[in-house]
Amino acid sequence: MSLKYKAVLGAIWTISTSVGGRALGLIGTLLITRFLTPDEYGQVNTAWIFVASVGAFAGLGFGQYVVANPKEGDETVWHATVYNQLATLIVLLPLPWIAPLFKASFPQFDEFFGYIPLLTVAAIIDHTGHIPNRVLARDMRFNILGIRVLVSEIVYTATALSLAYMGMGGWSLAYAIVLRTVVSSCLMFFALKPARWLKVSRLSGAVTKRMLNFTLPMAGGNILHWYSSKADNLLIAAMFGPTTVGQYNLAYNLADIPTGHVGEHIGDVLLPSLANLEGPDRHRALVRAAGLMALLVFPLAVGLGAISETLVRALFDARWYPIAPMLMVLSALSVFRPIGWLIASYLQAEQRTRSLFLLEAIKAGGIAAFVYLLGKIGILWACAGVGVAFALNAWASIAFVKTDGIGMWRLTKPMLQPLLATAPMLGVVLGVRALLGPYGLSPWLLVVIELIAGAVGYVGAAFVFAPSHARDFVGLLVGLVRRRRGGTSEPPPSGDTPTADSDEA
Fold first, then answer.
1. Measured distance CA(85)–CA(87) in Å, rounded
2. How far is it, in rounded angstroms, from Cα 400 to Cα 445?
3. Whole-angstrom distance, CA of residue 247 vs CA of residue 42
4. For residues 416-449, b (16+ Cβ closer than 10 Å) or e, as one string?
5. How many CB atoms lie under 10 A from the CB of residue 58?
């Protein structure tokens, strides 16, 4: 199977299993909110984010080095395993004793620090499975990674819901997090032969130096990336308290579905694909992927914002209704954030880790500044600050690849066309709501009608505003089906897309 179809199949595996797992998680969260208050939800989630934020300092980029250098052997993987585990233990083991020093920053969080020791164990287990995860990604075994996501989400949801029903409050989430990391790591250990990542060899100064040249700039970028995606929760927790941060965290997680479970996985699949391409082929693959990513992600983001009010009233009780306007505003980040992920994959394949560091610094600084400054006006303005920061990062990311001969317009144009196609979809959804609102339909029925109307509106608009991308996407799916059935024919090229004989991602 060509690299192109390996990438497409990998994207289908990771996206479908991730969305499936997230759907189960969403159903579980919906049920859990019947037993947990926003305050309890906010306390334990903030504690987990706090632990993971400290753990980000152990994410030095050794796993990314393994993926970005697929031609290096098991000796390099062993180096990555040793250094990753050493960093994990140095950073995380002292955390239960250090955490109480931050009590002054979270005065309203009574139960927060009680969760820290247990969640620290979960973080160490999670970091231990990182290198096997990256070896599987390097080998493009995305079916295993997809199954891991799905199974771990099932385990988390079943555990959290069972314990919450038994009246364990926030501890139900804490124990579920631990069990999820155990199951996730064990699945990867069983799927990967120990010799692929535990083949003991003498630590080489030459290999170590080569890795550090890549990972040291990457380490700073990884830390900044984590803080740009999660530190807003800590900032909002300190500014608004546990109840508001619990509502914000749930709204953010919903808004993040198009990014974290579609756009981000496209970036994960794209990195090993781009690492196997060079020069103009890599440039064309990036441009093509940008259009296809926008075709998939933008309607999900805009559509989620459009149905936010109806969706929240259908899924949650009155204690959680304040997340509706937050979700509407935060959905903007799902339009801009995947652009940064896409270009980050390209920059890693190009070994431009210093550029990645600068982009993550722009994003992290923007989120801290905009959330803090706009948050002084109110929580919805803080939510808007997140979207503004991701928009700034997207613009800077596109500007960074201009130096490689990929013009800003060449990369932006494929994404503008699918974005234009979301306008008719938005109009259809709002029109249906205005038309049916006076009839007093149940929120469940109304949200289903809005979803169907929006989907039909977008598909039709996509073939009008972004016809080449729509035909390219259909052609890739048809070609993949033919190959899976044993056929050899390729779909014909359409519009200005690359030919089907190309091995682009």
1. 5
2. 46
3. 7
4. ebbbebbebbbebbeebbeeeeeeeeeeeebbeb
5. 24
Assigned token pair, 452: 């169907």
Contact between 333 and 370 (Cβ < 8 Å):
no
Each residue's pLDDT tens digit, 374-391: 999 999 999 999 889 988
What is the rounded CA–CA span in Å between residue 85 and residue 80? 8
Reported for 407-416, long-range contacts at CB under 8 A and 24+ positions apart, including other chains, are 410/287, 411/286, 411/287, 411/290, 414/287, 414/288, 414/290, 414/291, 414/294, 414/469, 415/290, 415/291, 415/293, 415/294, 415/298, 415/339
pTM of this prediction?
0.70
C-alpha 293: how far from chain center: 13
Q: For 331-363, what is each residue's pLDDT tens digit?
A: 877 788 888 878 887 887 777 878 888 888 888
Q: Is 489 left (phi over 0), alpha (psi -120 to 50) or beta?
A: beta
Residue 416, both tokens: 């503008």
- Report DSSP letters for 70-94, one per residue: TTS-HHHHHHHHHHHHHHHHHHHTT
CA 455 to CA 424: how far, in whole Å? Answer: 10
Unique residue bearing structure tokens 């969260």: 29
Return the structure tokens found at 187: 């699945």
453 is written with which tokens?
């109307």
Q: How far apart are CA 109 and CA 141, in angstroms?
A: 42
Could you tell me where the beta strands, DSSP code E, fall in 30-130?
none
HSE of 298, CA atoms in CB hemisphere, 13 A: 26
Q: Which two tokens stand for residue 195?
A: 């010799």
Q: How far apart are CA 18 and CA 147, in angstroms?
A: 9
